[in-house]
UniProtKB/TrEMBL annotation:
<dbReference type="InterPro" id="IPR015955">
    <property type="entry name" value="Lactate_DH/Glyco_Ohase_4_C"/>
</dbReference>
<dbReference type="GO" id="GO:0004459">
    <property type="term" value="F:L-lactate dehydrogenase (NAD+) activity"/>
</dbReference>
<dbReference type="GO" id="GO:0006089">
    <property type="term" value="P:lactate metabolic process"/>
</dbReference>
<dbReference type="InterPro" id="IPR036291">
    <property type="entry name" value="NAD(P)-bd_dom_sf"/>
</dbReference>
<protein>
    <submittedName>
        <fullName>NAD(P)-binding protein</fullName>
    </submittedName>
</protein>
<feature type="binding site">
    <location>
        <begin position="90"/>
        <end position="92"/>
    </location>
    <ligand>
        <name>NAD(+)</name>
    </ligand>
</feature>
<dbReference type="Pfam" id="PF00056">
    <property type="entry name" value="Ldh_1_N"/>
</dbReference>
<feature type="domain" description="Lactate/malate dehydrogenase N-terminal">
    <location>
        <begin position="41"/>
        <end position="114"/>
    </location>
</feature>
<keyword id="KW-0520">NAD</keyword>
<dbReference type="InterPro" id="IPR001236">
    <property type="entry name" value="Lactate/malate_DH_N"/>
</dbReference>
<keyword id="KW-0560">Oxidoreductase</keyword>
<dbReference type="InterPro" id="IPR001557">
    <property type="entry name" value="L-lactate/malate_DH"/>
</dbReference>
Length: 263
């Protein structure tokens, strides 16, 4: 029987476990918290939700560094990892943590994925976006799209501030992706993963199955949308490089302290 290891039993982890149980999947669910020593990393799917809860205020890079420290601690205890395992990162910032997870585990890129924008995609499917059609072929101006984007981001921040996150929704999505892997459903999800030679993972529609990422889905985008998308990818790459530089200096500083103290 297949096994799902769920690491992190906060609200998102608990919601993910509940969603998996309700689906009545034919698999053993192993529940692990950061305070419990990991005994075995031979699960078919490992879902990491530890550090999912948003941390408003403060410096974003300090938050990133804290959460990457937690993730590195988790993955270190999991070594060696079964090469057939699929890792699903749910914790935020999901793109950066998914990138880190692949770098640490050295698993094939198709076997390390993040929940990415799956929840946003599902929400969009349940709504009707009524872009004006009286603007010619392009339909909507860049200004209107940016206004809509700003409004949507503002609403999401309000939801997170009021509810301290959206654990039930995120848990349902994580469970859905895990089931797609275990049952080799080959369904489309907009998961975060490393594409080509990009420095950082980001979301793109892919077919998900038993080996994780089966294949990417071809998507046609307009020039304006392509520019906005590439700008976002570039920002993620800059954040990833910034993190690596900061990590390097912290490690070097630690080494200097040890040298000064002696063996």
């Amino acid at each position: 029987m297949s096994t799902i290891a769920l690491i992190g039993l906060d609200s998102v982890g608990a919601s993910t476990a509940l969603s998996l149980i309700r689906r009545e999947i034919q698999a053993t669910i192993l529940l692990v918290d950061i305070n419990t020593e990991l005994q075995d990393a031979q699960a078919d799917v490992v879902i990491i939700t530890e550090g999912m809860k948003p941390t408003p205020g403060g410096d974003i890079y300090e938050h990133v560094y804290f959460k990457t420290t937690v993730l590195k601690s988790i993955l270190k205890e999991m070594m060696p990892i079964n090469p057939n395992t699929v890792i699903l990162v749910v914790a935020n910032p999901v793109d950066l943590l998914t990138t880190l997870a692949q770098d640490i585990t050295r698993l094939p890129k198709e076997r390390v994925i993040g929940v990415g924008t799956c929840l946003d995609t599902l929400r969009l499917q349940e709504e009707v976006v009524g872009w004006p059609t009286s603007r010619g072929k392009d339909g909507v101006s860049i200004e209107e799209r940016l206004d809509a984007e700003e409004f949507t981001q503002g609403r999401m921040k309000a939801i997170v501030a009021g509810e301290e996150g959206t654990p039930l929704e995120v848990g349902a999505v994580a469970a859905g992706i895990a089931v797609a892997v275990l049952e080799d459903k080959k369904t489309v999800w907009t998961v975060s993963h490393r594409r080509g030679n990009n420095r950082c993972c980001y979301s793109w529609p892919v077919v998900v199955g038993r080996e994780g990422l089966v294949r990417e889905v071809e998507v046609k985008v307009r020039e304006g949308e392509k520019w906005t998308f590439e700008k976002g990818v570039m920002k993620l790459g800059i954040m990833w490089e910034h993190y690596k530089v900061k990590e390097f200096h912290k490690v070097k500083g630690h080494d200097k302290v040890k040298e000064a103290e002696g063996p």
